[in-house]
Model the fold of this input.
Amino acid sequence: MSNTLIDRLAAIVGASQVSADPDVLEGRSLDHTGRYRGRASALVRPGTTEEVAGVLRECREAGVHVTVQGGRTSLVAGAVPEYDDVLLSTERLTEVGAVDAVDRRVRVGAGVTLAAVQRAAAKAGLVFGVDLAARDSATVGGMASTNAGGLRTVRYGNMGEQIIGLEVVLPDGSIVHRHSEVRRDNTGYDLAALFVGAEGTLGVITALDLRLHPTPPHRVTAVCGFDDLDDLVAAGREFRDMAAIAALELIDSRASALTAAHLGVAAPVAGAWQLLIELAADTDPTEQLADALENVALSDEPAVGVDAVAQQRLWQVRESLAEILGLYGPPLKFDVSLPLSAISSFADESRELVAAHAPDAIPVLFGHIGEGNLHLNVLRCQLEGAREAELYGAMMALIARCGGNVSSEHGVGTRKRDYVGMSRTEADIAAMRTVKAAFDPAGYLNGAVLFD
Done:
């Protein structure tokens, strides 16, 4: 990168917000998982939408690739630069507007963390519909770009269903303001939806109008143990269609054994598989939970929490998983969605596949069973290079054979771009490339993401 471009970027955002320090860039070029590293030439941190626009115009004119970074919690190398890119960070776009408690909405900057949105909503007696374990670092701009799901998806839907409006800077530096004060606005193309899940390939989201929800006054949480995964899936089918469902999480016993051994957080029930169920409603749903559990094939008496302290205790194993995943070095991660009917066979075959490629590795399976969105983490996986690629490709092929998608809530990033054809037809991919070319004919914005 030329010093001239550095000077022009500094003129836009201020010299203190541009860095070409190799140590800074090295830290910013490592994937959140710790497995994938890229190369960057500069970091720039604009503080307004207009500054983002100016940065994009300068980089486009200079023919320099740009990779957009938010909280850098991507698990598929979505924020890893590949072309000595300029890293455009949204971390200074942190304004949180006043919560409109009547219309239940709030406008926030793309760099605002999920936890900050949750706090603002809670102060107004409301709740935000998406929750993730990475809530303290994940930013809502990045979550919109990947259409993140998480712990509450079974009730409220993915990130896209929480977005009322967006502010986006296009690759040519123009700014699209798609904000509306009305609940129903069907004027022209739904441009906002186009940028949700686009992983920053079509523009840089700088601000969002988010939908908030009433806080249910009554809540009950249970953890149930199962010896047979098919029995758990059958229970999941029943619970996911209940009006009061608030969370439905699968945890395997290998995960709970690790949290018990390393964090002192043991599973509250026995069984090879655990299902965390939470119901929330205007009236006490405890009796509804008890009735639903009567015909479920449990391996043990369920653990039930009716007050906040007991509920928090039941959530501990699930919430502690993020802390143990890196105990044996960077895990190899697979984020997939599967038909519920295929989950049991996938669990068996994926375990065999890992054993064949990495006998010392520990496969840990957990996730959002209501949507069939599972996270397979392979711990103590020492594979590198061609051997890692061989296991990764074989796992992607298994997912496709099971009728699943190679990506669910984490996106494609750079890690899964070679496997998009397993979940999308050639015509689908061609159409997406056409859209990309229309917005970014030079292909300089997040150029390594989604497409090869």
In short: Residues 3-89 form a domain with the Uridine Diphospho-n-acetylenolpyruvylglucosamine Reductase; domain 2 fold (CATH 3.30.43.10). The radius of gyration is 22 Å.
